[in-house]
Backbone:
């Protein structure tokens, strides 16, 4: 068997394996080739690259069809089927201060300051 026939056969075996397990590393191992070879084949051979993409699309289609419709819809159409939250959290005055002043409250030199600022902000919230 000549080299071109061997490569063609290996590519076919790769695509067959990949259609069952679409993980490049394992599909390459199944034909005793490394991933660099597969990447090169995909770059140089558009028909092979297309066959790999079709194999992956077919695998995804089989998995989607085999799952519960609700599960698939929740994953594929998140905007429609996911629960929507109406709560919007506003940052606290403390969070805003930390962000605006690039302040790290956890350093030893800032801990005392942090306690004073927290006490001050707590006082402000009592009077508001």
Residues:
């Amino acid at each position: 068997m000549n080299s071109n026939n061997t490569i063609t056969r290996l590519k076919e075996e790769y695509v067959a394996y990949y259609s069952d397990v679409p993980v490049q590393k394992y599909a390459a191992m199944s034909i005793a080739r490394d991933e660099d070879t597969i990447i090169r084949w995909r770059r140089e051979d558009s028909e092979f690259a297309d066959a790999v993409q079709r194999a992956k699309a077919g695998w995804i289609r089989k998995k989607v069809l085999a799952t519960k419709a609700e599960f698939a819809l929740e994953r594929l159409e998140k905007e429609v089927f996911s629960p929507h939250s109406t709560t919007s959290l506003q940052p606290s005055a403390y969070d805003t201060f930390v962000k605006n002043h690039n302040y790290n409250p956890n350093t030893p030199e800032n801990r005392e300051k942090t306690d004073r600022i927290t006490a001050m902000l707590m006082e402000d919230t009592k009077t508001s």
Notes: Residues 3-81 form one domain.
